[in-house]
Design a protein that fits this description.
mainly alpha; 227 residues; 63% helix; single chain
Length: 227
């Protein structure tokens, strides 16, 4: 949305609309030009207050930019507050767990937002459990009896590696977790191996992820507020 709010893209959009109308032989209707009301210039006045108007500029400012600003503002206010929790949840994705096994460093405020959502989680213990779980995840994955988990892991790895920025990783990680059921597979694996007592906070985090709604109805509820 923010990339669309430029002079160049507006001009490209207008050109595409004109080309589309010409290609399909549609009647092209020009924007209505408003008549400028002339004001009497008093004696001694050297300037005029009638600003020159251009219909395209007026449409760009009052309609195009205004609409984009409203949409961007609504989306930011709706989702910006969730960025922290989404970042924490993305660390529970397959790729992030595999990365943590290679590099054990992460910011000290990791999982703080997750604790606000799940007060029963102990952040310090969760961070320690996360590193220990990541270090042993490869051996646990090899011993999983459910063959679907390897397929799920490969699909998530391929999809997430296509994204470079952290924000894109957050969105794709959460999307794939819901789509392919990685969190539920982790819950089943931990139950099967009896790891709930060894990693109680990790288990609670994965279990909570399974409760996040992924139906079309939840998306409709969100975007009904954008209109």
């Amino acid at each position: 949305m923010k990339k669309l709010r430029t002079e160049e893209l507006f001009n490209n959009l207008m050109d595409e609309a004109t080309s589309f109308a010409t290609l399909h032989k549609l009647e092209e209707i020009s924007l209505k030009e408003e008549r400028i009301s002339r004001k009497t210039k008093m004696s001694g006045e050297n300037c005029r207050d009638e600003a020159p108007t251009n219909v395209n500029n007026k449409f760009k400012i009052n309609v195009y930019f205004y609409t984009l600003d409203k949409i961007i503002g609504t989306l930011d206010s709706r989702f910006q507050s969730s960025r922290g929790i989404l970042t924490d949840l993305s660390r529970l994705s397959y790729v992030r767990i595999k990365d943590a096994a290679k590099d054990s460093f992460f910011p000290p405020n990791t999982f703080l937002e997750l604790q606000k959502w799940l007060p029963e989680i102990n952040v310090n213990n969760l961070q320690s459990e996360y590193l220990a779980f990541a270090a042993s995840f490869e051996s646990l994955e090899v011993g999983v009896t459910n063959p679907e988990i390897s397929k799920i892991s490969a699909q998530q790895s391929n999809n997430i590696n296509e994204n470079d920025s952290e924000s894109e990783d957050v969105e794709v990680s959460n999307k794939n977790d819901k789509q392919f059921g990685f969190a539920s597979q982790m819950v089943q694996m931990m139950c099967g191996y009896g790891l709930m007592a060894l990693f109680p906070n990790i288990y609670l985090a994965f279990k909570a992820m399974c409760t996040i709604p992924a139906s079309s109805a939840s998306a409709e509820r969100v975007f009904s507020k954008v209109r």
